[in-house]
Design a protein that fits this description.
The complex is a heterodimer of chains A (about 270) and B (about 550). Chain A contains 7 helices and 11 strands. Chain A has helices at about 35-55, 70-80, 100-115, 135-140, 195-205, 215, 250-265, and strands at about 1-5, 10, 30-35, 60-65, 85-90, 120-125, 145-155, 160-165, 170-180, 180-185, 210. By secondary structure, chain B is an alpha+beta fold. Chain B folds into 3 domains: about 5-95, Uridine Diphospho-n-acetylenolpyruvylglucosamine Reductase, domain 2 (2-Layer Sandwich); about 100-220 and about 225-280, Uridine Diphospho-n-acetylenolpyruvylglucosamine Reductase, domain 3; about 285-490, Vanillyl-alcohol Oxidase, Chain A, domain 3 (3-Layer(aba) Sandwich). Chain B has 17 helices and 21 strands. Chain B is globular and about 70 Å long. Classes of the chains: A alpha/beta (about 270), B alpha+beta (about 550).
Chain lengths: ~270, ~550
């Protein structure tokens, strides 16, 4: 069985934007594996362990990303955490891609190199762009079923189906679809796995294959900026939330008086 | 006879120095200044905040005239009450907080920083690592450019955990910490100091300028023509033991070493120059788990033997009880511990190694062989090399002492007499001293006593901390007796009662086990030669 995990490298911490060019400042900012992608990888690794131990079926996890050469470090992290090999779509012709061109490149890579896959996992969204579009678009390109916002999955190999518990606006729902399928993952353990030294060394022996646009298609115009129907007009950081009002006093009675005053002034309680 | 001449500064009017007067004022408005992290509480009549060296001189002259002792104070991060005053004046050096210069020593090809004592290690290191010194841009433009052109990243490697500590405080206490395994204590990094002496005169002491005479003496002469000669202590402390107890001494010693680690009893440090060094490009912090304490000790010995290949930054220990306590914490609050499930093993070693991608697999091979030999494996490790994970593992390392302190704080609320007993002994790193034997000795005595405890810390320096957590006063007394047993054992092996905490006002009972009356007299003689009226930091190290 082959599981593909699509991942993205994102800047760690607060994102700063160059006010003149409107682009993200990436210099000097540490890059990390997008947390939702890491949850997706966790799920793939869990299934691998389960299938190999319980059913004796060999499962291979291939991690896939499109990005600059620096994205290798995010792939390496995935290899340390338990992926078997990695593919990096790396070419200037991929640059400037919107979500459609990105998902197209990913789907062509999968169809070309790993067409016998059973599952594709993605994070529900990347924490920098927050679009949540690449996963669903990728499923469309591949022409397979998709279940988004998964928080846990159960593989039913004998029926060639997967059952997924997914988040909704109001709670959870459990849905099933047939394989192959794409699952976008929205939750996982807060406490991140730490690789062992052995895993760190082993990861460095695993293969990261670099693929150029020309290797994917003769028509490279469909990738990157030229293949992107949408363009970002402006990027700006979200407004920080203000801290609200804090009533501080050593004397609880005075503090309560001030709280009541506040509630009365704002019409939450009636004045006596 | 080689004289060491001191200089005189005019000083400024005493009235100019910012001061707080009155015991009550200080106690109510400036309470943190009469305490340190030991929570020992003192009292004082004056609190001074000099902003320049001349103001320090004025305070020293005036207090000497009034017969009031001066307790020198830095960031108060110490845990032995060294800066806690009992009467007289507190001389806080926190406003002497300027970085004065950057230097390059042509002879040794090393960079150094010149600073006033009140600069924190945090500020110093942030500036050094980023090579950003706004205060020096104009003054030393050319040298700053040269520093920036140097491609290496530098830092000040002494890391006594408390990064808010002031550089002056760390020099006067010879601070160390986990990384002293590789870098030694503060002493090794001090290039020069300036000191205000008890007669109000100033002495600049560069390393390598003033050595003790063949008779073991130093002779000072001040601008008034007064001379004083004193002998350096004749006791010997092994060079292969990490030590923070007593005045430093050795034949033909450098005068600068007498002042470093002297706990403020000889003078006021008003300026320091410290070397900085190349920061390792990448480090990997690893936790390895072992079935027994003895396996862990043997692993440490094996790593130390391979140190030329491994370049270990530090080696820290977690005993069976420590792991048990952390597992319990993990069960009740996994997010706080923020680590994968702690394995059901008996001991752990946390170590850090500097590496490059090219030599990583070689390092791994060496470590794997050592781990397997000691019934562990590299598969059972947690290995962190990314910044965020190193932060996690650092927090994990600090979690144990924090947990212990929280338990004790809870017991203290029920019974104020209760406090933690934290040992600080180290034994020499020589083949005759067997690390496993020392651990077994501690273990056996602790088992006999039936006291709750954890053993953790700087095992690479043969310097583990035993924290005893008494439940009541009876146990506290028992713990104090046991502390003395451990102290005697360490001393009998050529070790120390205090490897890094210092003596201050709190650890004198144990200091006296290591330094008998004659040795203490030798320290007092040095103190009284330089400070005949007992002006500086009385009550630290020795009772006069």
């Amino acid at each position: 069985m082959k599981i593909i995990v699509c991942i993205k490298q994102v800047p760690a911490g607060e994102v700063k934007i160059n006010p003149e060019t409107g682009t993200l400042i990436r210099e000097g900012v540490e890059s990390i594996l997008n947390p939702f992608c890491e949850y997706a990888l966790d799920e793939a690794i869990r299934i691998k362990k389960e299938q190999e131990e319980e059913r004796g079926e060999k499962v291979e996890i291939i991690v896939l990303t499109m990005g600059p050469p620096q994205a290798r470090s995010a792939l390496l992290r995935c290899l340390e955490l338990g992926s078997d090999r990695a593919i990096l779509l790396c070419d200037r012709k991929f640059a400037g891609a919107d979500t459609l061109a990105t998902s197209l490149a990913l789907s062509e890579a999968i169809q070309k190199f790993e067409v016998d896959f059973t599952l594709v996992f993605t994070g529900k969204q990347a924490i920098d762009g927050d679009t949540a579009q690449v996963g669903p678009e990728l499923a469309e390109h591949l022409g397979i079923s998709q279940i988004t916002y998964a928080i846990s999955t159960t593989l039913i190999p004998e029926r060639k189906r997967i059952q997924v518990k997914r988040e909704t606006e109001n709670g959870y729902e459990i849905v099933e679809c047939k394989l192959p399928a794409l699952i976008s993952v929205s939750g996982g353990s807060n406490i991140r796995k730490i690789p062992s030294f052995k895993e760190i060394i082993n990861a460095r022996k695993k293969r990261i294959r670099t693929v150029t646009a020309d290797e994917l298609s003769k028509d490279t115009e469909k990738f990157g900026l030229s293949g992107s129907p949408t363009q970002v007009a402006k990027v700006f950081p979200p407004k920080g939330r203000t801290g609200g009002q804090k009533i501080e006093s050593d004397d609880p009675e005075k503090a309560v008086d001030r709280l009541i005053e506040f509630l009365q002034e704002n019409g939450f309680v009636e004045k006596e | 006879m080689d004289f060491i001449w001191t200089e005189s500064l005019p000083g400024v009017p005493f009235e100019q120095v910012r001061k707080i007067e009155g015991k009550e004022n200080i106690e109510t408005m400036f309470a943190p200044y009469i305490m340190d992290e030991s929570k020992l509480k003192g009292h004082a009549e004056w609190l001074f905040f000099p902003k320049e060296e001349e103001e320090v001189v004025s305070v020293v002259r005036e207090m000497k005239k009034r017969g009031a002792p001066i307790t020198i104070s830095a960031a108060r991060t110490g845990i032995v009450g060294g800066c806690v005053p009992f009467g007289g004046a507190i001389l806080s050096l926190e406003k002497l907080n300027a970085i004065l210069g950057l230097g390059f020593d042509e002879k040794t090809k090393q960079w150094y920083i010149k600073s006033q004592p009140g600069v924190s290690l945090k500020e110093l290191n942030e500036k050094v690592i980023q090579k950003k010194f706004p205060e020096l841009e104009e003054k030393q433009k050319e040298l700053m450019d040269q520093f920036r052109q140097d491609e290496k990243t530098y830092y000040y490697p002494v890391d006594p955990t408390e990064k808010t500590a002031h550089i002056g405080g760390t020099v006067s206490t010879d601070a160390s910490g986990a990384r002293s395994y590789k870098y030694g204590s503060t002493r090794k990094w001090v290039r020069k100091i300036r000191v205000v002496l008890a007669d109000g005169e100033i002495l600049e002491i560069p390393r390598g300028k003033y050595y003790a005479s063949s008779e073991g003496t130093f002779t000072f002469q001040n601008t008034k023509g007064e001379t004083k000669t004193f002998s350096i202590p004749s006791y010997r402390i092994g060079t292969n033991v990490k030590n923070a107890a007593g005045l430093f001494t050795e034949p033909s010693m450098d005068l600068i070493d007498l002042f470093i680690g002297s706990e403020g009893i000889l003078g006021v440090i008003t300026e320091v120059e410290v070397w900085i060094t190349e920061k390792p490009e990448s480090v990997i912090t690893v936790i390895a788990f072992f079935p027994t304490e003895m396996d862990a000790a043997s692993f440490v010995n094996d790593i130390r033997r391979k140190d030329s290949d491994l370049k270990t930054e530090f080696l820290e220990y977690l005993c069976p009880e420590s792991l048990k306590l952390l597992r319990k914490k993990q069960n009740s609050d996994p997010n706080l511990v923020n680590m994968p499930p702690i394995p059901e093993k008996s001991a752990a070693i946390i170590f850090e190694i500097s590496y490059t991608e090219d030599n990583l697999s070689k390092i791994f091979e060496i470590l794997e062989a050592i781990a397997i030999k000691n019934n562990s494996s590299m598969e059972q490790t947690w290995a962190c090399y990314k910044d965020r994970e190193i932060e996690r593992i650092t927090a994990f390392r600090h979690l144990l002492p924090e947990t212990v302190n929280a338990i004790i704080a809870k017991r203290k609320r029920e019974n104020p007499a209760i406090h933690k007993l934290g040992t600080d002994m180290a034994v020499p790193k020589i083949p005759e001293v067997n690390l496993a034997e020392i651990l077994s000795f501690y273990r056996e005595k602790l088992r006999e006593s039936n006291l709750e405890h954890v053993i953790f810390g700087h095992i690479g320096d043969n310097h583990v901390h035993i924290n005893i957590l008494p439940k009541d006063e009876k146990e506290l007394e028992k713990a104090k007796e046991l502390y003395k047993v451990f102290a005697k054992k360490a001393v009998s092996l050529g070790g120390t009662v205090s490897a890094e905490h210092g003596i201050g006002k709190i650890k004198k009972e144990y200091f006296n086990i290591m330094f008998d009356e004659d040795k203490r007299r030798q320290i007092i003689e040095v103190k009284q030669a330089l400070d005949p009226t007992d002006l500086f930091s009385i009550g630290n190290m020795v009772d006069i």
